[in-house]
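--- STAGE predict ---
source: upstream dedup step, 1 unique chain passed
mode: sequence only
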Amino acid sequence: MFYTTSVCPKCLRNTDLKLLGICSGLGPSATICKCGIALISKRKEWPEMNLSEKGGFIGLSVLGGLAVGTTWGLFTGTLIPGSQNNWQFPHNFTPFGSAFVPGLIFGMFIVCAIQAFRVILSVRRVRDLQGQPPNSTWRDLMGTQFLILLLILLPLPLLYLASGGKAFGK
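--- STAGE serialize ---
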């Protein structure tokens, strides 16, 4: 299944989303649906997480960073040599050359920055809400999962547009 959702038992609105069934575990442990019902989740705020949960969050973030970084590395590894050679590639071409590294670093940096920002927001939520559950919003529901998926998939249309389709065998 591509994604799973939890729904409010009263109004049936989506209250939680997991892309590919994966969840970092970071977020409010309870939220208030728009209909007013308090909903419990399996998430925890950063200060409430134990060391192994924080390690799991960091590990999942690194894996996400590698996934995003690899696709951006393949993008730059194909875009830079391709644009320099009119999109004619030798038979032994590999996108894992020196042009791969900047894309890898860029992708990993973006994911790490997003996840660090989420931790900062989590700490602020704990400080500012003082035990009150936050309202559930679409932004909170979406989290960063679709943003990271978009960052993984974005290099493909960019490469197609930059090459005029030549990078895909046109």
